[in-house]
Design a protein that fits this description.
two-stranded antiparallel ribbon; 3% strand; 3 helices; binds zinc ion; single chain; 124 residues; mainly alpha; 2 strands
């Protein structure tokens, strides 16, 4: 009977009772043990990836839901959407910095011009 103690045993998140790995509902309190399977269809993946990349914070809800799945394919989807979200944030920050730098240098250019004239005046 010692073989019954395997790593696959789940514990009910509601009452903590041990439940068999394949149990869908807790035998003790009847609460669902497994989250419903998330879709891993191509269409769903595309939506998740698009939202992850173009609307960064909104993709994260899916990202964590998929990462928590035991299904390997779902985990990969979660991972990809996480990477896309991070990439989108990096691109966003980079774009903002690029814009600020551009703004700075054009301001510096404008101010720099008058500054050097000012400096020349001071040197006279
Ligand atoms: Zn329970």
């Amino acid at each position: 009977m010692a073989m019954d103690m395997n790593l696959e045993d789940r514990f009910c998140p509601s009452c903590g009772a041990k439940a068999p790995a394949d149990a869908v509902f807790c035998p003790h309190c009847g609460k669902p043990l497994q989250e419903p399977q998330l879709s891993t269809s191509i269409g769903k993946q595309i939506i998740i990836y698009l939202v992850s990349f173009f609307l960064p914070p909104f993709g994260l809800a899916w990202t964590f839901k998929y990462l928590r799945q035991e299904n390997k394919k779902a985990k990969i989807i979660g991972l990809v959407s996480l990477i896309l979200t991070i990439a989108a944030v990096i691109v966003g920050i980079w774009a903002i910095f690029g814009f600020m730098n551009g703004l700075n240098s054009s301001l510096n250019g404008a101010l720099g011009g008058s500054n050097s004239q000012f400096n020349q005046l001071m040197q006279l």
